[in-house]
Amino acid sequence: MNVFGWMNDQLLRMTLLNELVGQGVASVGLDPASRLGGSVQFFVYDVIKIFILLSVLIFTISYVQSHFPPERTRALLGGRSGLGANTLAALLGTLTPFCSCSSIPLFIGFTAAGLPLAVTFSFLISSPLVDLASVILLASIFNWPIALAYVAVGLVVAIVGGTVIGRLGMEDQVAAFVRAVPVTGEVATMTRAERVTYARDQVVEIVHRVWAYVLIGVGIGAAIHNWVPAEVISTLLGQDKWWSVPTAVIVGIPMYADIFGTLPIAEALVGKGVGLGTVLAFMMAVTALSLPSLIMLKRVVKMPLLVTFTGVVIVGILSIGLIFNAISNWFI
Q: The whole model's pTM is what?
């Protein structure tokens, strides 16, 4: 346990890096204990840490993803139905794209291939909401119980959400052109060198796509952490406030960011005493129900199905937020 704790602190939390950044801040005449100095330390440390972890994790996970192209994922799900198929779809969603907008083309392909609506929606919810990188990044900021709890509840939302949508029998609410999209066959197997190249290219592409959101998220986190009084945050989003979870969802939906950009904000909010459930609800709303992804989804499904999907996911997120606020002492 001591070895595990040391590895978690040094490799994930990067406490040595934080100390070095603090020394660097002090060397330029800023006091790390002051608001300005603390904000600078928070910003520099979190940006460096997130980008290091992000690059390593994306490379590793993309290498794994290269074994699961859309055609293979579709083949694994083909011919399956019921709770088992929804669970498998949600699990496979953890190995696919990092944001909801890039998972929608896969949703179209799965629907065109004739997969049940319940399966495709379990995948669509899980793909942006939960991924292997989120486990490591959450553990680096909070702890392993919280990281694993986030993944578990994310999968529950995906499985239950897909099941509910499937039971409603709304197959006729998918745009007609989606069913007519041609389905490609199995792709050729990559060589090891091609997998390495693919993983490297994914690092470049994803970092290029999310770097601005990471900087904005860390900046907001630094401001909350050092400039916004804890009593103000507590008044607005305190764990004892019934409106904290709905407010977090309402604030999160209009935003567009990957989980990588929301983590620094979540870290700062928890540090100010915001309930764990409220923070999880905020992160889930941003990643699973971002406004741009809903606009894209509207192009491939009809309004009744879009409203149903949004409503089911919101109810799931609200439920999880309220439950985790009630049991947060188990994790913190």
A: 0.72
